[in-house]
Design brief:
Layout lengths: L3 H8 L3 E7 L2 E2 L6 E2 L1 H7 L8 E4 L13 E6 L3 E7 L7 E3 L12 E3 L5 E7 L5 E8 L20 H32 L4 E7 L7 H7 L14 E3 L12 E3 L2 E3 L2 E6 H4 L2 E6 L22 E5 L12
Parallel strand pairs: 10-11
Antiparallel strand pairs: 1-5, 2-3, 4-5, 6-9, 7-8, 9-10, 11-15, 12-15, 13-14, 16-17
Length: 305
């Protein structure tokens, strides 16, 4: 808290998207609530913000870890979460050997995505999709040939394939949801934000961005713009992994919203390497990605960020 609160205070943001928000129990038998998040924003401007949060799918309470939250200075007119609402769960059966037939594996998302429709002061809606895709780590598949504490080469590559299906499948669900927003509002101001566990040219990000201009008939009006691409390359990273900088946290904006963008920053100064960081880890191993916008028709005159 003592690390994150000064950052939030300095940002003075109008809309904030959080990933990996834990939910705690006040007592052993109590329901989980966002106790730590409440403490983080207590006494700050964010305490009075409107809030949308995710739930554990199929329940009315948040999960213990990896919840999503959207905080907004302005009213949240609509919110919902999607978890296989568009793209159905499926199963995949690894190839068998001889008479041995492996059990099918369910391909399901790690967590839902969170959507909020925010009513801006100028009467325009801002559509925010908060997303945290699965990390590119192999799903554990036990092949029966190795001890439970070890992972064979074959089980690893099959598990990596399942992980890719999870990540890309949820990116597809998010993109089809965005297509629905465009169907209802062709000039919608849309921001897809969060930890995509994907760099810009990887498949999940490409699915979310949409058809490139060069593959479209004319300008691709539904293409999302990766706002961090406006930064010089040396500043364009949100994590360090074994000494290698990578941009896996993104703000992807529809063309009408991107046209209002006045600045982008990634607060990656002093970022710890996620491979070598020592416990306890204070703050986050992901740098905040920030975008500022000038909405000319905003009667308040303030630049939403």
């Amino acid at each position: 808290m003592r690390v994150l609160r000064p950052i939030l205070d300095d940002l003075a943001a109008d809309v904030v998207c959080f990933q990996e928000v834990d939910a705690q129990k006040a007592t052993h038998h109590a329901s989980r609530r966002f106790i730590a998040l409440d403490r983080l924003v207590s006494g700050t401007a964010y305490e009075g913000y409107c809030r949308a949060t995710s739930l554990r799918p199929g329940t009315s309470a948040p999960a213990d870890v990896h919840n999503l939250a959207i905080l907004s200075r302005w009213p949240i007119a609509e919110q919902r979460q999607l978890y296989h609402d568009i793209v159905a769960k499926r199963t995949w059966t690894p190839p068998g050997e001889g008479l041995v037939q492996p059990a099918p594996i369910e391909v399901a998302w790690e967590r839902p995505l969170l959507y909020a429709k925010i009513a801006l002061p100028n009467g325009v809606a801002l559509h925010v999709v908060n997303l945290h895709l699965r990390a590119p780590r192999a799903v554990r598949i036990q092949d029966g040939l190795e001890p439970a504490s070890r992972l064979s080469s074959r089980a690893f590559v099959e598990g990596q394939f399942v992980a890719a299906q999870k990540r890309e499948g949820q990116a597809l669900e998010a993109r089809i949801f965005v297509e629905g927003l465009f169907d209802s509002e062709p000039t919608a101001r849309i921001a897809v934000c969060g930890d995509l566990n994907s760099q810009e040219n990887d498949v999940p990000a490409r699915l979310l961005i949409g058809v490139p201009d060069e593959d479209a008939d004319g300008i691709s009006v539904r293409k999302l713009t990766p706002l961090a691409a406006r930064l010089e390359e040396s500043r364009r990273f949100s994590v360090l992994h074994a000494g290698r900088p990578a941009l896996v946290d993104h703000i992807l904006a529809s063309r009408p919203l991107a046209a209002c963008c006045t600045g982008v920053a990634i607060l990656n100064e002093g970022l710890q390497d996620e491979v070598t960081a020592k416990e306890p880890i204070l703050g986050s191993l992901h740098a905040p990605v920030i975008a500022s916008f000038d909405l000319a028709a905003d009667p308040t005159g303030g630049p939403p960020s």
